[in-house]
Amino acid sequence: MIVQGIRIFMLIFIAFIFSCQKSNVSELYYLPDGKPLYEIGPINNYPIVLVHGFGGFGRNEMFGYKYWGGFTDIQEELKNRGYPVFSAAIGPFSSNWDRACELYAYIKGGYVDYGKAHSKKFKHRRYSRYYKGIYPQWGEINPVTGKRNKIHLVAHSQGGQTSRALICLLEKGSAEEKKHTASYDISPLFEGGKNWVHSLTTISTPHDGMTVNYMMNKVFPFGQRLVRFGSMLSRHIDGIIYDFKMDQWEIERKENETFWEYARRLRSHSLWRRTTDTSDFDLSPEGAKILNQWAHAQKDVYYFSYATEETFKSPFSEHQYPEITMDLVWLPSAIFMGAFSRNEPDKIPIDSKWFQNDGVVNTCSMDGPTIGSSDKIRDFDGNPKKGQWNYMGILGSCDHADIIGALRYVGENCPEGYPSLLDFYIYWAEFLNRLPDKSRYK
Question: How confident is the model at residue 439 (pLDDT cuts 50, 70, 90)?
């Protein structure tokens, strides 16, 4: 009886989500005169930069298996349809500040500069890798259009937090870096005054952090967890197919060092016991609150957010449990998040609204920053507005990896309402391609 009741509940829930998601996103967007956007041509041709999340990897890693699409190369599929698209590759386990600095250099080109003040505070190198830049003309005036070359950022998971940090540094700069660095020595990233990002889209991003960290830190300390993750991807392979990109901590892999030698050295490094300058802290609600207090939505940027979930509510309590289609690797974390709560002095309260999740991130954390933030979040009504979060809703029955094409079952349909995952990204590229430079709405 109980099992049958749960099945009925899941069927009703999935049917409801499907009915909400049937419309092509382009058909929801209208100009003030009521004219559908799909009847007019592109308004902008800004490139799309895909930003990976925690544990992500570059296009030349993992034997060519793509973070964005898995066996379907979303970047190239979009490019074949006329959309300029690039994929970034930044530190998979670094802090959002460090990742933002890396993302800036990866797009624009040059050496990664983490900032004189920041590097001194956290006791790591100021400079690391040199990148030639995937879009060196970023921020320059286009000689053909007479407009500044901007970009669209589309980010998954922690990539959304990182992108928010990048946008804020570009536009506002860093008071600390300006104070402690001579004008001739400071990175352009920290100077401010750069309206170089047209839009940010976050997908499954833990804007308010995620509670799975509390479970994972009880099982494995962060350093051990990092190495286990990397070793899982690199098992029995001695080539560099997975790059930790932690050069700033002087723990990069040495020449002729086997992966397992590197892993043992990395796992025992004192870093994990002495710093909060890692993704582990930044992805917790406490770390997210700190980011939210300074990485505010900028008035001249469009912000969009998508949430994902693949759990259902128990008919006997507020707890949430994994749907049958959730990948097995997420089941323990989904069950933990679906029941974890706390109300302790001096700690961020966690209640039942945090139970719904996608196996990695709590769904309530995905619409935009709220803890420590003054950002405005509103449900998208067809008219995009700058300087606030346009919440696109929940992509139902879609776990954290499904939405980027990883760990998918054969025949799995995610997100619901779209013929395929690729169609979702095609629709969204079309949407971004038609965002006006100036918002008609306040």
Answer: very low
Angle at 48 between CA 42 and CA 51, to 5 degrees: 155
Catalytic: 124? no
For residues 251 and 287, give the distance between their C-alpha atoms in angstroms, rounded to a whole number: 24
* Cβ(403)–Cβ(414) below 8 Å: yes
H/E run at residue 388: none
Alpha helices in 51-133 (DSSP H): 74-80, 96-108, 116-122
User: What angle do the packed helices 222-233 and 259-267 form, to 10 degrees?
Assistant: 170
Residue 375 known to be catalytic: no
Tokens, residue 316: 């006997």
399: amino acid identity, one letter:
D
Catalytic position from the list 118, 152, 156, 400: 400
pTM: 0.87
List Cβ neighbours of 378 (8 Å cut-off, separation of 6 or more). Answer: 385, 388, 389, 390, 391
Catalytic residue among 358, 367, 399, 402: 358
Domain 2-433 class, CATH top level: alpha beta
How sure is the predictor about 3, in pLDDT bands with cuts at 50, 70 and 90? very low
Maximum CA extent, the chain: 72
Could you give the residue ranges of the DSSP H alpha helices within 402-442? 421-433
Q: Which of 95, 119, 128, 157 is catalytic?
A: 157
Instruction: For residue 429, give every residue at least 6 positions away whose Cβ sits within 8 Å of its Cβ, in sequence order, or none.
Output: 48, 78, 81, 83, 85
Token representation of residue 38 = 């799909």
Determine the Cα–Cα distance for residues 162 and 151; give it in Å rounded to an integer.
15
pLDDT tens figures, 131-170: 999 999 999 999 998 999 999 999 999 999 999 999 999 9
Does residue 25 carry a pLDDT above 70? Answer: no
H-type alpha helices, 137-191: 158-172, 175-180
Rounded Cα–Cα distance for residues 78 and 424 (Å) = 11
Calpha distance 23→426 (Å, rounded): 14
Cα end-to-end span (Å), the chain: 52
Select from 183, 165, 180, 160 the least CA-distant residue to 366.
160
98 among known catalytic residues: no
Task: Please spell the DSSP secondary structure of 36-56, one letter per residue.
Answer: BGGGS--S--PPEEEE--TT-
pLDDT tens-digit series, residues 355-367: 999 999 999 999 9
